[in-house]
């Protein structure tokens, strides 16, 4: 809301009328047109409860054809829309900035096909990530991404934010694993790019435009994605390091000694481990890690690393992992740690890492910065931020160290503009100076639509705006997000 107060609602956008409602009821039926207060309150508010829109209408199409009819009509009426998946986005992209019509993809959640040899999955965009993970598990495959929001986020939202997550180190970006998309454009055109081929070099590969476009270029209605085979041997260890330099040495050692079986390398600092709610969880976890002494007493260590290996031979993998751990201990890269003995212990270790965002939300207000930074420099920013803020806020750092992705979170009892002014623009200027990215995986949304210049050149941003104007000339798709709104107001 504070962000939207800086921007003005575009006067050329219409407001919904009774004729509009009749039209939508006619194509979607009563159940596809939602106006009840309680539901609207939820879908107007983002996961962090930081952004709140004033939409009076949510539409729930069930087919790409219905999405096409909705967009064609909204385009002709100049009604702005915001596509919404699981509403777990963290940059204010999934909720209206003002009264945009919410187009929820949730009811488009069918699995269409799985090629059991190639592992190519075709499904509707509203499939929840966790459901796809479960479906594939029974078929001997895995999703090439996993994130803490898997219980709610949808594959269409994952594609639209080019989500990274906990397995990118092993399976790469969605730009590599997504083979095809069906997308509906602002004028209602249904773009069938739903190829299932690994190699297709016929013309411009347009699907990549929509991966990471955050609902600003089209609505994703179907996804075709390459899913890797599920392997039999998974090991998870949770290790403690005395300093950040040891974490970096450990990362290099893991890449060298674990090599092809390394499937995740996550880190969290003392500030993260010290979050009250996370500590409570650790106590809970340790209760049922019988006989495991607590290697996590936050007072003793400064950094924690979660390493996962995934391979096809338990004995081979354990031999590599044991050699790696022994070498790391002998060279003082780790000061303590546990190796999960079974799937329960493994998921408990993952829950500690995945539980940080929730723990932060319970601690009060949180300012989130999802940054790509050269790993050698990454923790310098955390320390500088700590000096800047002193006792006024708690600086918490964690993230996908294997990808050079820092999640810098500033935790305060409540949101406070004085704190914000000490963080921004410093954090963006620092990142830009170190040739980093001000958004590694969460996208730009509303929060950073005016910040893209810290990472992209003016010519690049202008070309993005030209593409946006070509595909959505009336600007009705997720306006005010991703790119500076000033590029779309008639000067
Ligand atoms: P939404 O939040 O509904 O929407 C996100 C954006 O995509 C919006 O701009 C929306 O307009 C657009 N959109 C959604 N669906 C469509 C569609 N079908 N067509 C076109 N546009 C669409 N993100 C990461 O990258 N890595 C992480 O590790 C990670 N961990 C998280 C952990 C937690 C606890 C939480 C709450 C979030 C986390 N996120 C992470 C952020 C978020 O989960 C991802 O951005 C996710 O991909 C959003 O999916 P969604 O379905 O919730 O999309
Ligand atoms: C993660 C989740 C959001 C955050 O946990 O990997 O992407 O920054 C984040 O808390
Ligand atoms: Zn993340």
TrEMBL record:
Keyword Cytoplasm: no
Transmembrane segments: none
Superkingdom per UniProt: Eukaryota
FAD-binding PCMH-type domain ranges (all copies): 51-230
Pfam families xrefs: FAD-oxidase_C, FAD_binding_4
Cofactor(s) in the UniProt record: FAD
UniProt keyword list: FAD, Flavoprotein, Oxidoreductase
Listed PANTHER family: D-2-HYDROXYGLUTARATE DEHYDROGENASE, MITOCHONDRIAL (PTHR43716:SF1)
Family listed: Belongs to the FAD-binding oxidoreductase/transferase type 4 family.
Official protein name in the record: D-2-hydroxyglutarate dehydrogenase, mitochondrial isoform X1
